[in-house]
Design a protein that fits this description.
Elements: H1 8-27, H2 45-55, H3 62-69, H4 76-84, H5 92-97, E1 102-104, E2 112-115, E3 122-124, H6 125-138, E4 142-145, E5 151-156, H7 161-170, E6 187-188, H8 203-214, E7 228-231, E8 245-252, E9 255-262, E10 273-279, H9 284-298, H10 309-316, H11 318-329, E11 334-335, E12 354-357, E13 363-368, E14 374-376, H12 377-390, E15 394-397, E16 403-409, H13 413-422, E17 436-438, H14 452-464, E18 475-478, E19 492-501, E20 504-513, E21 525-532, H15 533-550, H16 555-560, H17 564-570
Parallel strand pairs: 6-7, 7-8, 17-18, 18-19
Antiparallel strand pairs: 1-2, 2-5, 3-15, 4-5, 4-14, 8-9, 9-10, 10-11, 12-13, 13-16, 15-16, 19-20, 20-21
Helix pairs in contact: 2-9, 6-7, 6-12, 8-9, 9-11, 10-11, 12-13, 14-15
């Protein structure tokens, strides 16, 4: 129909004529002419990458085939229809619905979980009040703080899903792209803009890439999920080295830049790999865009287990990957030797809890302890009220599953703390509880082998009654190999496992020790697999007492000085106390 010998009017006439012929054939019951396949959109990098995979003889995964048939963001009608019918998605539709931040978590719960997007983890009191109302009216009456400084709402019925998404939008929030093959919540320093030692305020940079992603539809075509983090050099770690893109603020002479690291995925035992690349803060969004587009082209679409950025770097090597990024940018990246950087100030191990001064004269922030990251509706409303009455109406979530209330004058600290206590919350914690992190566990996740949140609370109670530590440690409990609680980077990392007990399988954990992040990067070592939860407290208590009795050094350093067999032997020496 596009031969050059036909005028546009003739082409239109022939198209209409052939459409009439096809309609007549259908009316007579004759087979229709085969339709021409739709041409790939040249502006769709996901489809181009899929086409390249097929041309090379690869077989797309079912998830890639589903994304190829229809863009997952174009599923509002399906979500509305299944909600009207009171049904949850099934089969591959469960995966596709995650693009809207809705997770059907059966069989753990026959309901949706909704994960939000909160760039930098910073909320207003108005938004937190709204989330509390949504949790009360449409969900289970609570919200969970995640290890990406984010919030999740649970126990959402099938019929409530569209209302949930609409209510979030009316608050100025979204869950779009919070699950499946997307850039997840962008994290930044929780004390950004208020930290006396920070090099740079990360808020505008986290915000910029957040909105860039939301407004570029072609960045929802990744091979797998992707994480981005900004550390501004402040007191509280944001664990940027566990992310696919890690920006760490550095000072070189009188200039503040971000140093780039790539490919962090500690669930696969890999930190982000430091590069010599530095970037001006104003250029971080453009650099992220280029990295994402190279990842879209180069990521594996035939094997979900090898589809993260780490495996692209393994295959290409860092320099080849960066050369492709430079091609995408249309110019060279800036390189700088790390010797040019001023040494970074030390971070506070548990600086996310307690009362701390801000760089604004006379103002303070309070790090509120949120037991295993869960807050009920009354506590959500109460915290929003406290930050409005005593502070600036700002709530800052952290990757440590707690939150900060900022901008509180010194003469109002006592009243604010009393109000926090009235909610059943606190701002002080033992060295055991201050670094306690737990994923959702099998109470709300189908992958988890153990009740991590319940066990974390019980374990902290049990240990606190028996040992007082003079240094902080981090204990992370994660329910499955996805490692949402990042067990490999904890001093004590616990991975959910099923343990044989007679003829039964009971809940327990694999015990890892010696992990760390930031300047103390290390992947924890497995010293004892499959410990029943009833035996876990005594095993950890034995390790902690042995460490304390030696009287010096961090727990990580103490573990590093001993081999696996010696540490495992210690775990067998303690008996359960009354």
């Amino acid at each position: 129909m596009s031969e050059p010998g036909f005028s546009p009017e003739q082409q239109d006439y022939l198209k209409g004529f052939m459409a009439g012929v096809e309609a007549r054939r259908g009316a007579l019951g004759l087979p229709l002419a085969p339709a021409e396949p739709a041409a790939a959109d040249p502006m769709d990098p996901q489809r181009a990458a899929q086409d390249a995979t097929i041309s090379a003889g690869g077989r797309l995964t079912p998830e890639e085939e589903a994304k190829r048939k229809k863009h997952p963001l174009d599923r509002w009608d399906e979500i509305a229809t299944t909600a009207a019918e009171g049904k949850f998605p099934r089969g591959i539709d469960v995966f596709l619905t995650k693009f809207h931040g809705l997770f059907h978590v059966t069989p753990a719960q026959n309901s949706f979980m909704c994960r939000l997007r909160i760039p930098g983890g910073i909320l207003s009191a108005h938004q937190l009040h709204g989330i509390a109302d949504i949790a009360h009216e449409l969900a289970g009456g609570y919200a969970d703080i995640t290890t990406r400084a984010n919030l999740q709402l649970r126990e959402i019925s099938a019929t409530a899903a569209p209302e949930m998404l609409m209510r979030l939008a009316e608050l100025g929030l979204t869950s779009r792209g919070a699950g499946a093959d997307n850039v997840r919540n962008v994290t930044g320093s929780p004390t950004a803009g208020i930290d006396p030692q920070e090099l740079i305020d990360t808020r505008p940079h986290a915000r910029a890439i957040h909105h860039h992603i939301l407004n570029h539809r072609d960045l929802y075509g990744l091979p797998r999920k992707f994480n981005i983090a900004f550390d501004g050099g402040g007191r509280v770690p944001v664990l940027e080295d566990t992310n696919d893109i890690a920006f760490t603020a550095v000072r070189a002479s009188n200039e503040i830049l971000y140093r780039l690291a790539l490919g962090g995925i500690t669930g696969h035992r890999d930190f982000a790999r430091t590069t010599s690349v530095v970037v001006a803060p104003s250029a971080t969004t453009r650099l992220c865009d280029a990295i994402l587009r190279v990842f879209i082209r180069e990521g594996d679409r035939t094997d979900r287990t090898k589809a993260r950025l780490k495996y692209v770097l393994d295959r290409l090597g860092m320099e080849r990957f960066l050369a492709l990024v430079e091609q995408e940018l249309g110019g060279p990246l800036t390189r700088m030797d790390s010797a040019a950087f001023t040494p970074a100030a030390p971070q506070l191990r548990h600086g996310h809890i307690g009362i701390h001064d801000q760089k604004q004269q006379g103002l303070h922030y309070i790090g509120v302890v949120c037991p295993v990251g869960r807050l009920d509706v009354a506590q959500l409303h109460g915290l929003a009220d406290i930050t409005t009455r005593f502070g600036s109406g700002t709530i800052r979530l952290t990757v440590w599953q707690n939150l900060l209330l900022s901008d509180i004058p010194a003469d109002r600290l006592d009243a604010a703390c009393a109000a926090i206590a009235a909610l059943g919350l606190g701002w002080q914690a033992s060295h055991v509880r201050g670094g306690l992190v737990a994923c959702t566990g099998n109470a709300g996740c189908k992958f988890a082998a153990s009740d991590t949140k319940g066990h974390a609370a019980a374990l902290a109670d049990w240990l606190e009654a028996r040992v007082t530590l003079d240094q902080p440690i981090n204990i992370h409990l994660t329910g499955c190999h996805h490692s949402c609680a990042q067990h490999f980077i904890a001093d004590i990392g616990l991975l959910g496992a099923k343990v044989e007990h007679g003829d039964e399988l009971i809940e327990g954990y694999d015990l890892h020790v010696g992990g760390g992040g930031g300047p103390h990067q290390a992947i924890g070592r497995l010293i004892r697999p499959a410990i029943a939860f009833a035996d876990l407290g005594p095993a950890i208590l034995a390790l902690l007492r042995a460490w304390q009795s030696d009287g010096a050094g961090s727990f990580q350093a103490w573990c590093a000085a001993r081999d696996d067999a010696a540490l495992a032997a210690l775990c067998h020496t303690e008996t359960i106390e009354a």
